Amino acid sequence: MVNREWGETSKAVYKEIETTKIDLALKHKKVRADGTDKNCFTFVLHNEDHTLGNSLRYMIMKNPEVEFCGYSITHPSERKINLRIQTKGLPAVDVFQKGLEDLRGVCQHVLSKFEVSLVLSNPLEMYLF
């Protein structure tokens, strides 16, 4: 789950992008990014699996500025994803952030629709919330 402070973190990334090793602090995870230029990065997401990897890959690939996005899990016993992003011109960090924001929006939409249908399916529960 991505916290709401992600926008502040992405601003700090631009200061460190020259080093090509970036540590982004998310709520309970660390994301590390390695790359040789701003258009091509590999993000390492710790404590994640195919659920986030494939969903995030799908959301990022919907961006027309993305040439390539793929992920791999290093080993079945490790909960770590390597997510590779290559863009046509935009910084890969921005594309990664937008993919996370888009995925969060989709999840929020699904959750709100589920909650509404739950309340509508049992009118008595409406008064329990």
UniProtKB/TrEMBL annotation:
<keyword id="KW-0240">DNA-directed RNA polymerase</keyword>
<dbReference type="GO" id="GO:0006383">
    <property type="term" value="P:transcription by RNA polymerase III"/>
</dbReference>
<dbReference type="GO" id="GO:0003899">
    <property type="term" value="F:DNA-directed RNA polymerase activity"/>
</dbReference>
<dbReference type="GO" id="GO:0046983">
    <property type="term" value="F:protein dimerization activity"/>
</dbReference>
<dbReference type="GO" id="GO:0006362">
    <property type="term" value="P:transcription elongation by RNA polymerase I"/>
</dbReference>
<dbReference type="InterPro" id="IPR036603">
    <property type="entry name" value="RBP11-like"/>
</dbReference>
<dbReference type="InterPro" id="IPR033898">
    <property type="entry name" value="RNAP_AC19"/>
</dbReference>
<comment type="similarity">
    <text>Belongs to the archaeal Rpo11/eukaryotic RPB11/RPC19 RNA polymerase subunit family.</text>
</comment>
<protein>
    <recommendedName>
        <fullName>DNA-directed RNA polymerases I and III subunit RPAC2</fullName>
    </recommendedName>
</protein>
<dbReference type="Pfam" id="PF13656">
    <property type="entry name" value="RNA_pol_L_2"/>
</dbReference>
<keyword id="KW-0804">Transcription</keyword>
<dbReference type="InterPro" id="IPR009025">
    <property type="entry name" value="RBP11-like_dimer"/>
</dbReference>
<dbReference type="GO" id="GO:0005666">
    <property type="term" value="C:RNA polymerase III complex"/>
</dbReference>
<dbReference type="InterPro" id="IPR008193">
    <property type="entry name" value="RNA_pol_Rpb11_13-16kDa_CS"/>
</dbReference>
<dbReference type="GO" id="GO:0003677">
    <property type="term" value="F:DNA binding"/>
</dbReference>
<feature type="domain" description="DNA-directed RNA polymerase RBP11-like dimerisation">
    <location>
        <begin position="41"/>
        <end position="112"/>
    </location>
</feature>
<dbReference type="GO" id="GO:0005736">
    <property type="term" value="C:RNA polymerase I complex"/>
</dbReference>
<keyword id="KW-0539">Nucleus</keyword>
<dbReference type="InterPro" id="IPR022905">
    <property type="entry name" value="Rpo11-like"/>
</dbReference>
